[in-house]
Write a structure and sequence with these properties.
The complex is a heterotrimer of chains A (593), B (179) and C (242). Helix content of chain A is 41%, strand content 12%. Chain A is an alpha/beta fold. Chain A is globular, with a radius of gyration of 25 Å. The mean pLDDT of chain B is 95. Classes of the chains: A alpha/beta (593), B alpha/beta (179), C alpha+beta (242).
Amino acid sequence: MDVIELQAILAKEQHHPHYLLQMLRLVQEKENYISPQVMSFFAEKLNIPLTKVQGVVDFYSLLNTTPRDYHILFSNNIIEQLQGKEQLMKQLMSKLGVELGKVRADNRVCIDNTSCIGMSDQGISVLVNGLTITNLDEQRISEMVDLIEKKIPVSQWNAQWFEVKDNIQRKDQLLSTDFIAGSVLDKMKNNTADQIMEILKVAGIRGCGGAGFPLDSKWDFCRQTPADERFVVCDADEGEPGTFKDRILFQSYADLVFEGMTICAKIIGAKQGFLYLRGEYRYLLDSLEKILEKRRDQNLLGTAILGDSNFDFEIKIFMGAGAYICGAETALIESLHGNRGVPRRRLPYPVHQGYNKKPTVVNNVETFCLAVKALQMGGETFAKLGTEQSHGTKLLSISGDCKKPGIYEFQYGVSVREVLESCGADISNIQMVQNSGPAGNSLSPEDFDRKIAFEDVSTTGSIMIFNKDKDLLEVIQNFANFFVHESCGFCTPCRVGTSIIKNLVNKVRKGRGSNVDLKEMQDLSILIRNAAHCGLGMTATNHISDTLKKFPQIYKERLHNSESLHPTFDLDAALEDARQITHRQDAAAHLSA
Amino acid sequence: MTKKLKVATASLAGCFGCHMSILDIDEKLIPLSELIEFDRCPITDVKKIGKCDIGIIEGGVCNAENVHVLKEFRENCTILIAMGACAINGGVPALRNHYSLKDCLEESYLNGIGLENAQIPNDPEIPLLLNKVHPLHEVVTIDYFLPGCPPSADAIWTFLNELLSGEAIKLPYQALHFD
Amino acid sequence: MENIITIDEQMIPFKTGQTIMDAAMEAGVYIPHLCHNPEFEPHGSCRVCVVKVNGRMMSSCTTKATAGQKIENNTPELQENRRCLTQMLFVEGNHVCPGCEKSGNCQLQAVAYYTEMLSPRFQHFYPYRELDPTHPDVIIDFNRCILCELCVRASRDIDQKNIFAMSGRGIKAHLIINSPTGKLGDTDLNVNDKAVQVCPVGAIIKRKQGYMNPIGERFYDQAPIDEMGDIAEPHAGAKHHD
C-alpha cells in the first residue's frame, strides 16, 4: 500500500489514535493483510509505540500479517459444523491445495476457521475477504475454486451468494412496528429528559445483552454523574454463537436503533455516539452509513436536531475486527480507544467512567429498539407486555434441529416448549437446547415448561436445538474450543483454564478419560467461574458444569474402563514419528492403550 | 512384628540422581529396612515387579519401554509415587519437547560432530521413543508426588516414614523444593 | 465501625481509597500475589490474590476496601484455588526449576511452596518459546514469563521507555519488545531500569549474576514467602512480626 493511500486512511480517521483499529481494518479490507511497513507508518504518524500497533493487530482475529489474495474464514458455529461444514472446508482446501490456516505458496489463498459469523440460520457460511457468503454447497465450492484460480475479484463473484435473508418467522410488537424515522424523536420533542425517563421507568425495560440491567437505572446513573461530556454506545458486537438478531435489526429496522441511540443522547446529554459493529457484519456497513446520512439530511442527526438548538448528536460506526470479548462493555470501550479488547476492572462502571473516562451508556442493539418502542406505545402499554418482572418482547435467534430456523419475537413469559413448537422442532426427539450460546445454559427436556424471562430462563436470544442423533460431546468440544479462541488472555484462570478444559473434553471424547477427569472438569469449572477477571471467564465453563449435571451419561459412556491408566495422549500414535524414522513395524514398535 | 511392606523402584527418563538420593539416606536405611523390603529395584537387580505396597518412580516417560514399566508398576503397586522433577514435570529430558523427534534424532545421530557411518539406530532391541516426553501423571494415576532435583535424602526419608506410619505427609519448608 | 475490615477475623484498618491488598500489606497480612507490586497500578491478572469478600470471590489487589468487609483469606478453599492457579502457570510455560538461575529467588516458585503445590496436576503445554540473548546485560527467557505485565508497567510508567508490551490473544498472549527487530538488544534498555528489577520470575534476568548464592542461602531458602515478601521489594507484603 502506498503512502498516499495510507495518508488518506489517516485523514479519513482524523489522525486519531483511538481510530487505530479502524485504520488497520481499512488496510486489511484493501490488501487482505497488514504489513510491517504499515504498522510502522501508523506507529510513527499516531506517535504511539510500534508494539501497541502490533499488539492490536495480533489481538483481533480478522486482521492478518502476511499477504494473500483471498482470505476465507469458515464459520465455526456448531450448527454449521453439524450440517457438514468440515467436509465442505476440506473439499475447498484439497481442491485449492492448501492446509488449514496456512497461506498457499503463491500467496493466493488462505483458509481458516472463525467463530460464529451470525449466519447459523443460513446454511454453511464463510467470510471471503471480509464479506459474507451463505448457503455454501458443493456446487458453490467448485465454482469458488475456479474464481480463485482465475483470480477474479470478490466484487465480481455471483451476487446471489452474498444474499443474507432476514428470515423473520414470528413478529410481535417490536418487529411489527410500522416505524417512520424521526417519529419518536418528534413525539418526544417537547418533553424534558425527566419526562421521557418517567415513561421509560414505567415501561421497565431491561437490557437485552444478557445481564438484564434496568435501562432506566443505567441511563439515570449516567446522566446524574457530573461531567462535561457523555457518550452513547450501541453494542452490536453480537458474537454469541447462534445469535443473529442484530443482523435483522440492522437490515430492516436500523432506524429504530439509531432513533434509540439519539433519544438516549437527548436524555443523558451526549453529543457523540458510537455504533460498535462486529467486523463479521461488514456487509451491513454501507447500508448503515447511508441510513445515517439520510438521518442527517432529515435533521435527525447532526446539529440542532429537529430544530432544538441544545440538541447536537453524531453517530460514528466503529467496526470491530473479530473478538467476541468486545461484546463485554468494558472490553468494547477499550476497543473504542483503539486498544486490545481487554476488559477493564469491574469498577468504575462505564456509566461513571466509560469512553474517554466520561459517563457512558452502553446498551445492546435490541435494548435501544425497545426504548423507542416503549416511547411509541407508551410506558404503561409496554409494561403490560411480558411478565411482571420481564416487560416487553424478546427476539430469539433459533437454529439447529427445527423446520424453520430464523428470528422469532415472543413476549417474555412464553414457555420453552411453545417456542420449540412454533419453530417446528420435533420435541420428543430433542436431546438438548442450548440457550444463550456456549456461555449460557443447557436445557434438557425437563426444562421445556420453564418460561423465557429474566426470572426463569434468562436469554440473550440464541437458541440452538440438538436432536438425539447429535453427539453432544462434539457440541461441548465446539463450545470449549470457542472459549479457547475467544479468551483475551489477560487472566490466568480463563487464559490457561479454558485450554485445560478443552484438552480434558478431547480426552474424554477420544475414550481416554476417567472419573478423575470428570471430577477435574467439575472442579475447574467452579474455579474458573470464581477466579476469572470478567464475565467471559465467569461463564466460559457453564456448558461444562451444566452438561455434567444434566447429561452425565454422555461423558460416562465414553470413559476408559481403567481408573488408573488414563493417558492424556494416544500412546500408539505417540510412537508414529519414531516408527517412520526407523522404519520399524515390529510388535515392540506399538503400544496398546 | 508386622509384615514388611514391599517397595519397588525404577528410573525411567531420569538420571538416577533420585536413586542416588535414596542411597544418601545412608545409615538410616537400616532402620528403614526393618519396615520395608525391596522388590524390583536397581539395588536388588530384580527385573520383574511383583505385588507391592509402594512403587517409587524416578524420571518421566520418554519411550515405549517406559510406558510398559509404568503400567506394570501401576498394576502392581497399591501406592505409586512420582519422585523428582522429571517424574513430575518431565524435567530436563522434556526440553526436547520443543523440537520434533526427527530433528532431535538427526541432530544426535546424523548431523552431530565427529560421527562416522552416521545412522539413526533402528534395532528392535532398542525401545522406540515417544514423540514427546511426559510426566508420569499424564499416563497413569499417581498417588503421591515428591518434588526435588533430586529430593534430598532427608526429604525422602521423612516422606517414607510419614507414609509408613500412616500420618498425613507434611514436609518441613526446607525439604520441599523444585530444584 | 469506621474504616476497618476484617481479614480472617483480624481487624485491619484502612485509609479511604486503599485496596484490600494495600490494607493487608500495610497491616502485615500476607495475601499471595504475583502480578501485584505496590509501586504500580493494580493489575488483577494473575488472580492468585483472590479472596472472599462478604462471600464473593474478588481480587484483593483491585477491590477497594470498604468499612465492614468480612474477608476470608487463608482458608483451605482459597489456598486450593491459589494452588490451582499456580499449577496453571507452571503448565502454561516451561518452568524448569533445576535449570533456572532464578530458582530460590522466584516468586512463582515461592507461591507454589506456600500453597503446597507438589505436582503440576494438569497436562503440560510445553510451548515453544524463544530466548532473547541479544542484550549485553540482560537476558529475556520467554519460557518463564507469566504475563504479569510488571515489566510493561515499569517500562511505561517509570522508565518512560515503553520497551515491553502485550501481543496475541488467549493462550497465545505473549510479551513483545519494542524495537525494529523485536529484539531486546535493539532497545535502549539499561540494566538499571525499573523494568529489569521487577520480574517476579526468571523471565528477565541480569547477566553475570546467576547462582550468586548457593542452594540453602537463597532468598526463599530462608523462609516462606509469607515471611520473606516479594523478591523485587523484600519484605513488602510479608506478614509482620511482633
